[in-house]
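Data deposition worksheet. Section B asks for the primary sequence of the deposited chain exactly as it was used as input, without tags or linkers unless they were present during the calculation. Section C holds the resulting structure in token form. Section D is free text for depositor observations; keep each observation to a single sentence. Incomplete worksheets are returned to the depositor.
Section A, Depositor: J.P.
Section B:
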Amino acid sequence: MNKIAMLTAIGALGLSGCASLQGGSNLAGADFSKMSCEEITGIFDAYESDKATAKSIGGIVGIFSPSSASLAESTMQSGDAILQTAKVAANVALVSKGCQSKL
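Section C:
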């Protein structure tokens, strides 16, 4: 029974990443200079939504496997470092494009 629940949670986590990928781009490799203001902010909004979903699923996985929850947490921390670097680049692009929003 535990294996079924874990596989379900992992599958849902995999599906939750779709929104922030938006056609195969990701935060680390995004070329913000070629995106509109709305596309830039949309990628970050989708990432935050996916992150919230991943945290919820991570909590469920942690019930069945504390070591998996620990690995998921360290992976999310690595993602946060990438997010901060991407935000700097995105904010430069937003300012240079004259966008009203900032991240």
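Section D:
Residues 13-25 have pLDDT under 50 and may be disordered.
The two ends are 42 Å apart (CA to CA).
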